Amino acid sequence: MKSPYQYLLIIAMSLCMITIATASENDGIQQVKSSHDAKTTMEKLVNIVKSKGFNVFAQIDHSAGAKSVNMDLRPTQLLIFGNPKGGTILMQCNQNVGIDLPLKFLVTTDKSGQTWIRYNDANFIADRHKLDDCGKKVIDKVNNGLKGMSSAAAK
Q1: CATH number at residue 108
Q2: Domain residues for 114?
Q3: Does residue 14 fall inside a structural domain?
Q4: In 3D, which of 150, 152, 96, 101 has the Cα closest to residue 122?
Q5: Considering the domain boundaries, does residue 36 fall inside one?
Q6: By the 8 A CB rule, do 11 and 82 touch?
Q7: Over 70: is that where the pLDDT of 48 sits?
Q8: Is the whole-model pTM more than 0.85?
């Protein structure tokens, strides 16, 4: 027969395992299935982002980088964009948010040929940097904007 402490230890270890499994499943990345190839999806994203008044800071073609060193990589492009109005408010809450800003869209093509748009969930970023209620309106606005822009580009 096990002592009460052994049962508590088993329960505590089980809870730790559940927590670890949940953390690895929730990586804070949202994804949207695109109806287009990667190039068209990225072109649509760039146009939508600009039309919404965001600054496009960079567009990185990871596939081209791989090709430049004689390696293969399915289409993988990163769009880096943002708006100082929103980003500054979040960094006033916690400057470490700057590691996750500017915003990004990643466009990839999987092994089956399906194109995906991925982005960081703003709530995940807020939780990561312990923003609590600070910047809540901005976080909600960012999430709605990312969802809307990615959905529009995917159609």
Answers
A1: 3.30.310.70
A2: 28-154
A3: no
A4: 101
A5: yes
A6: no
A7: yes
A8: no
Considering the domain boundaries, does residue 21 fall inside one?
A: no
Task: Calculate the CA dihedral of residues 21, 24, 30, 34 and round it to 10 degrees.
Answer: -90
User: Which one-letter amino acid corresponds to residue 42?
Assistant: M
The H or E element that residue 56 is part of is strand 55-61
Q: Is the pLDDT of residue 107 over 90?
A: yes
CA 2 to chain centroid, in Å, comes to: 46
Q: Residue 88 above 50 pLDDT?
A: yes
DSSP, collapsed to helix, strand or coil, labels residue 111 as coil
- Both tokens of 58, joined, read 């960079």
- Reported as a single tens digit per residue, the pLDDT across 3-20 is 555 544 455 454 444 433
| Interhelix angle 38-51/136-154, nearest 10 degrees | 140
| C-alpha torsion sign, points 52, 150, 107, 124 | positive
User: Which amino acid makes up residue 144?
Assistant: N
Mean pLDDT for the chain overall: 89
Count of structural domains within the chain: 1
For the chain, how are helix, strand and coil distributed in percent, rounded to 5? 55, 20, 25
Residue 131: CA atoms inside 13 Å, Cβ hemisphere, count?
27
Whether 6 is covered by a domain: the verdict is no
Q: Which two tokens stand for residue 23?
A: 């953390």
